[in-house]
Amino acid sequence: MALSGLEIFKLLPKTNCKECGLPTCLAFAMNLTSGKIELSSCPYISEEAKAKLAEAEQSPIRLVTIGVGDKALKLGNETVMFRHEKRFENPPGFAILIIDTMDDAEIDARLSRFQELQYERIGILLRPELIAIRNDSGDAQKYADLVNKVKQNSDANIILMSSNHDILSASLKVCADRKPLIYAATPDNFEQVAGLAIQYSCPVTAKASGLDDLAELTTKLTEAGVKDIILDSGSRTLRRAFEDQIFIRRAAISKNFRPLCFPTVVLPCEMTNDPMMEVLMASVFVAKYGGIIVLSDFQGETLFPLLLQRMDIYNDPQKPFMAPEGIYEIGEPDQNSPVLLTSSWALTYFDLSLAIEASDIPAFLCVERIENETDVMCWCHYCLRSTQRGKLDSKSTSRFIKECRIKDRVNHRKLVIPGRTAQFKAELEQTLPEWEIIVGPVESALIAGFLPGFAEDLKNLSET
Ligand code: SF4
C-alpha cells in the first residue's frame, strides 16, 4: 500500500541539502507521494529505505500484457482507487466482437472498421486495440481459419473466446506468436486451459459466477502456475457488473486480497441488445475500472466519444495535455490568411481552434510550447476569470515564431496575440521587429466578431 508523505519523510536523510531541487526533505516526501518527483532525484536515500519505498510503491494489481511489440496492450499496475489521488496507469482496451458464424462480408466489414476507426487528437493516436473472436460454430477448423484471417488482416491484439480445450488449442497453434488472451478458464475446464496458457505463455481469463467462485478459481490457476490472469466475474447486468468492478478494485488496492489483484474484462455486448445502451454501459466501465471492454460492434459516432473519455480519464491530472508545438492550419489558409498565436496548453488550443473554425475564416494557428500551465498565454474564458493577466515570454515567443518559419507561409507580417497579453505588445515588437503585433480579443468567444474584419483588411492589403 502507498505510504503517506510523513511515512516517506521518516525514511529520508532529513538533511535538507536541496540537491533534489526542493527546499526540504519534507517537500521531497510530499512531492514523491503525489508522483511529481522520482525517488532517484535524492542521491542520499539509503538502500534499506529504497527497498522499503519500492515495496510500498509496488502495485497490488498485476501488470498483464496482451499481444506483442509496440501494439501490445498493458493492463493493471493501478495503485489508486481515484484518479485525483495520483493517476490511473493503463487505460482499458476496446475490443470488437467477431463471431465465426458471421458471413464473410460482415467479418470483412468489422475488420475494416477496426483498422479504419482511428483518430488523431493533439498528437495522440486514439484507436481500439483488440478483436474478440468468439466460437459459436463448434467447428475447430472454421474457428482456426477465422483466427488466421484476423491475424493476417489486422494488427489487433486477439481474444480467443471458447471454453472448448480442443478449439482453443487449434487456434493457439495459429496465433500463439501474437500472445492472445485466452477466454476463458472456468471452474469446469481450468486445468486444461491453464495447461494451454502455460504451454503458449499466454494470459488467460478466469470466468466464474460471482466473486467468491472467481477468487477460488484464480487461486487454483495461480497454484497451477498461471501468472497473467484477467478477471470476469460473470455478471451480465450493468448494476452487478459495476458493483463487481468496484469491489474488485477495492479488494486489490485497500485489502491487497491476492486472488482479485488482477485487471478485469467486461462485456457490454452481452448485457444489452440496444447499441446506444451498450455504449453508455461501456462509458461506465471506462470510468470505473474496466480493463478490457468488449463491444458488439464499432461505429465512429460511438467509438470516438469512448476513446476521448478514456484519454481524459487516463491522462495524468498533474500534467495537463499539451498540443505539439507547430503551425496548425484551420480550414485552408493561404498567403493572406490571419496568423494567431497561442500556447500549447490543450484547453486553450481547442478553445481557440474551434472558435476559428466556427468563424469560417481560414487561419494559421501558431502553437508555442509552454513548460507549465502558469505560463498562461491563453484564450479561455475560464482563465480570464481565474487569472486577471496573461503571461508571455517575448524571448521564447520570438524564438518560436522564427523557428516555425510562419513568415514563409504568408505575405503579410501581422501576428495576433491573445488580448490578455496586450501588455507584452511593445516587448514582442522589439524581439520580432519584422512583425506588427496585433492585440486580439481577450477570449476566444469573441474571435467570430474579430476575425472576418481582420481577414478582410489583410486581403485589401495584399491588393494594394
Ligand atoms: S536531496 Fe534528499 S536529502 Fe537532500 S533535500 Fe532532497 S530529499 Fe532531502
Q: Please, how many helices?
A: 16
Instruction: Tell me the count of domains.
Output: 3
Question: Regarding CATH, which class of the largest domain?
Answer: Alpha Beta
Largest sheet: 8 strands, parallel
List keywords for this structure.
globular; 40% helix; 5-stranded mixed beta sheet; 3-methyladenine DNA Glycosylase II, Chain A, domain 3; 16 helices; 17 strands; alpha/beta; TIM Barrel; Rossmann fold; single chain
Descriptive report:
This protein has 16 helices and 17 strands. Helix 5 runs parallel beside helix 6 (165-175), helix 6 (165-175) packs parallel to helix 7 (190-200) and helix 10 (275-287) runs parallel beside helix 11. The protein folds into three domains: 5-57, 3-methyladenine DNA Glycosylase II, Chain A, domain 3; 64-313, Dihydropteroate synthase-like (TIM Barrel, Alpha-Beta Barrel); 326-463, 3-Layer(aba) Sandwich (Rossmann fold). With 464 residues, the chain is of the alpha/beta class. Strand 1 (64-66) and strand 2 (73-75) form a beta hairpin. The protein binds iron/sulfur cluster (SF4). Residues 12-13, 15-20, 22, 25, 28, 42, 44 line the site of iron/sulfur cluster.
In short:
The chain has helices at residues 5-11, 25-33, 47-57, 104-116, 140-153, 165-175, 190-200, 211-223, 238-253, 275-287, 300-313, 346-359, 381-386, 394-404, 425-431, 447-463; strands spanning 64-66, 73-75, 93-99, 119-121, 124-126, 130-134, 157-161, 181-185, 204-207, 229-232, 265-266, 292-295, 326-330, 339-343, 363-368, 414-417, 436-439.
Topology:
Elements (H helix, E strand, L loop, with lengths): L4 H7 L13 H9 L13 H11 L6 E3 L6 E3 L17 E7 L4 H13 L2 E3 L2 E3 L3 E5 L5 H14 L3 E5 L3 H11 L5 E5 L4 H11 L3 E4 L3 H13 L5 E4 L5 H16 L11 E2 L8 H13 L4 E4 L4 H14 L12 E5 L8 E5 L2 H14 L3 E6 L12 H6 L7 H11 L9 E4 L7 H7 L4 E4 L7 H17 L1
Parallel strand pairs: 3-6, 3-12, 6-7, 7-8, 8-9, 9-10, 11-12, 14-15, 14-16, 16-17
Antiparallel strand pairs: 1-2, 4-5, 13-15
Helix pairs in contact: 1-2, 5-6, 6-7, 10-11, 12-16
Bound molecules: iron/sulfur cluster (SF4).
